[in-house]
Amino acid sequence: MTEMYVGSEVGQLRQVIVHRPGTELLRLTPETKEELLFDDLLWVRRAQEEHDQFSAALESAGAEVLHLDALLRQSLAVPEAKDFVLDHTFDERVYGPAAAPLLREVAAGLDEAALAELVIGGLTKRELLELTDEPRSVVLHSLGPDDLVVAPLPNHLFARDASCWVYGGVAVNSMQKPARMREAVTYEAIYRWHPQFASAKFSRWSDGLTDGQATVEGGDVLVIGNGAVLVGMSERTTPQGVERLAERLFAAGAADRVVALDLPKARSFMHLDTVMTMVDERSFIEYAGLGELASYTLTPRSSQSEPAEVELNIADHPPGGAHRAIAEALGLHGLRILTAEQDVHSAAREQWDDGCNALAVAPGAVITYDRTPTSNAFLRESGIEVIEVPGGELGRGRGGPRCMSCPTVREPVD
């Protein structure tokens, strides 16, 4: 049995969850893309080919690749998991009291593969009427034939966000945008009932559906090692979410320090890992336009075992003190910050194209998109091994290799 543990951001990657693009991305249209949080439409077949090369690169680097849709199918074979997913998918507050029971009944009659496809890929009214008669529901009657009855989950492509592993446990996150909230249901079902996870020992911090304004997304969470966690307060991760996550990590003894960076609240700075990622034990690639950020260090005041008993010490760092706070958390005298020299326009383009979103597969070895040549060349000049994968279509989704991966087993580093 594999022990689920993520001990660092850059140690040898042993196991990782990804999601290959599917039907859910075919649901994107010029009319629906903004609601579903995409800036552009992807050529899905080419995106699948690129994702296959990404998975192959992970395997070549020594990681076992787990596919989210397969994990969900296997979990749905467990009756408790199936009931959980059905109950949290077909809420009468969304579908109305007339339609919700019918939709649940129709979905319950599907086999595991078809149900997993519905949960992730969504369902149109036309497709629903192929499974059942026209329901007596104002909600459904008011929809056009090709309108979506069940919304798809295209952002599952970015497997990092809805759950993130931190040392000896996993946080199933409360997502900030409505289009992503149901992603937590998928991960909750997998971590509770999939045989590979149900038999493993790990902590689970799982209020992903009920945390209100205390939202956290995994793209903002970096497990930097030495018992420390770096978290970005972004447009998706709130200060309330940071405090709640810190409290739970401290109560479980999973971490002893959280450094929080206050990011600009802008689409281009969506998550911390769009502007800053770790590439070896002391080095970060960082966007030139990031500037000086306000930062805070949270530590526990007590060692009580119950979350309610854990109080937080919060240190407010002076402007420009973020790098020093991170170095102190790692027990280092300083960090190596890698920022390629280029004009402001080129730097902004490469950051938009995920030039800072590197996924470490081992200390000093990272996977990046081929569409960020300046950043990649600079990393190589700095002694980092760069494994390029195509990002012509995947990159249009605004997420790089780190975004598309959810490590479940990664070795710590000294």
From TrEMBL:
Key word Cytoplasm present: yes
Name listed for the protein in its UniProt record: Arginine deiminase
Active site: 403 (amidino-cysteine intermediate)
InterPro entries: Arg_deiminase
The protein's enzyme class: hydrolase
GO biological process, alphabetically ordered: L-arginine deiminase pathway
Gene: arcA
Catalyses which reaction(s): L-arginine + H2O = L-citrulline + NH4(+)
